[in-house]
Amino acid sequence: MPPSVFLPDRRRRSLAIRVFPIALACVLLLIASPLPVRAQGYGVSPLVRAAPYPQGDIVPEPVPIYGTNRYVSFYGPVSLNNHGTVSFGALAYLAGYQGIFTDTGPGGRIVAMEQLYGPATGGSYELYGLEPSSFSLNDAGQVAFLGLANAGFFRGILVDTSGPDNVVVQAGQSAPSTGGGVFYFGGGYLLDPGSNPALNNLGQVAFFATVSGGTTTSGVFLNTAGVNAAVSLQGESAPGTLGGTYSSFYSYLGGPSLNDPGTVAFRATVAGGSATEGLFRASGATDTAVALQGESAPGTSGGTYASLGFKANVTGGTAGQGLFIDSGGVDTAFALQGQAAPGTGGGTFNSFGNPSLNDSGSAAFQANVASGSSASGIFVFVPGSMAIYAVALVGQYAPGLGAITFTAFSDPSLNDLGQISFSAHLSDGSDGIFLASPVPEPSSLLLLGLGGAVLAARRRAHGSSQA
Question: Which residue has the higher pLDDT, 355 or 118?
Fold first, then answer.
């Protein structure tokens, strides 16, 4: 065969050799960059639906007790882990009882439901004996929750492990470092929602609790491998407050937050100091003030924190409320009242729910909107682009449900992959739980396409040389 026939193949091989390192670098850059940092939109899909019987999805009962049970309505926020599993509170139709469940995909199950037997409690969970909005899900699929059972007046926090529930703490049990005090959870048939447990991937559980008969009235506690330890107690010194002490720990705004290294973040009121309340972080034996009432609120032109949580009210500035992130001791505002709300036709943020943060510093949140085309939505802040994106808005069609639209949202849950789960009320009167996944921006797709094309060209050139 004439040598000229081989010339194009040699040129292709030469081009592939020169371009291959660039293409490989593009692919590696794409892989190394988390999708949330490079996302310009979110694909939303339905997971579970609750509706008037018999339209709701079937409750995943191993052995149906009351016939085919179906979800009728959902309660409050959801919890999402890094495997895309969602836990949620719901009311089941035929039983007429509320419970805590995981999504109905593979492995979907009942975590706990009223009137069903809870082995660790010695009885069954009572009517009104579960708090369907007080639970936490980790990557192992374990769920920490509040429970009340009819045997021995059990009240406490349990962890469901796809097998027997493990008791973390129960009323009447000794409360460590409290001078002989015991844990007390609520009264009568009610549980204290402020005991909201926080569960990390190591199986540690942080919780608020009231204490009876000791040297303190309440505290923040951490359970590790079945052993409870006091994190911070009422009456102890509150750092940064010039002599103030912890007065009480917030309950109506939710429970503490816990990460895998065992650091606990919590809200507390303060007595006798320079601030009346604050957001604090406890690591080991050291408490640190994250933000205090009266401190400067960044981005508000002279405003100061008026009340604090993982969101904050502000006084004396250009915004009355905002969402802030503390990193390395520096507070940064990422969403403020009056700031433009993307996707709402000129609307501005009016008020916020409690945000959900992940390890990359992204934050998902629900917000009400003023003077826009939508009154409310789910939004996400992405630190890589310092931008806020709209994930779902009131008035938008709910994906997969035809002409049905979103009418209201719960606070969302965000995982480390950038996925966001939330429950929503829908225009036909039903409820739905949805999962939003980030969609790469066009430049990311271009990099991936370039890498794929050059790799294919290199394979073709390699095949020609072998021929």
Answer: 355
